[in-house]
Amino acid sequence: MDDHTLAAWLAVHAGARLLDIRSQGGAEGDRQSNELLLRLLAEARPDDAVLSEESVDDLARLDRERVWIIDPLDGTREYGEPPRTDWAVHVALAIRGRPAVGAVALPAAGLVLRTGAPPVLPPARQGPIRLTVSRSRPPACVDHLRGHLDAELVPMGSAGAKAMAVVRGEADVYAHSGGQYEWDSCAPVAVAAAAGLHVSRLDGSPLLYNRPNPYLPDVLICHPALAGRVLGVLRRF
């Protein structure tokens, strides 16, 4: 199967495993999902490198053009609070540092969004801008955007769930500052870009992956019709 199909297949299989063992809690979910994804990737793409939130970082990946970047369970807290659906599985492939392939599964919602067959971008919505926000620890940029855009906040859990809310047209902007890693954003960014959304750092610069330090603290995903306005506000952040 091609890389796009493989990414979706992997995300779906990991999501199914997570649903089966949800009663065992987040730590066990992280462990089993990671082991499953690593095994399946080793079988399907043995020559590619892998960067996973749940594995020791092997810096040999820096010498590879193709690196799978995975978050086996994005939103461990939400996963541990059934019947919440705002948690995800991220599977992405960065090629020469660019997020070329991605799939984000929302297993409890029965959804997988992927490159190769991305969702159709909805038209720009009239009315207040809807800004996704963490229910527990909103980043500082959210208050700044809310004040300058008179935005409505849409609380939800994991990074993948927030990003996919924009992809699905349930929100207009996902902005994060204050700390993330490559596995938090690579798959969502790949899917969002394939759907025609604006993706960048908060300063408008490109998102680059497979760096020596996987810390990638900020991200912006929004409808392209809003990108200029949102970036203009963020430049004053």
UniProtKB/TrEMBL annotation:
Matching InterPro entries: CysQ/Inositol_MonoPase (IPR050725), Inositol_monophosphatase-like (IPR000760)
Needed cofactors: Mg(2+)
UniProtKB keywords: Magnesium, Metal-binding
GO molecular function: 3'(2'),5'-bisphosphate nucleotidase activity; metal ion binding
Residues given in the record as Mg(2+) binding sites: 53, 71, 73-74, 184
Matches recorded under Pfam families: Inositol_P
One of the protein's GO biological processes: sulfate assimilation
Name recorded for this polypeptide: Inositol monophosphatase
Gene source species: Pseudofrankia inefficax (strain DSM 45817 / CECT 9037 / DDB 130130 / EuI1c)
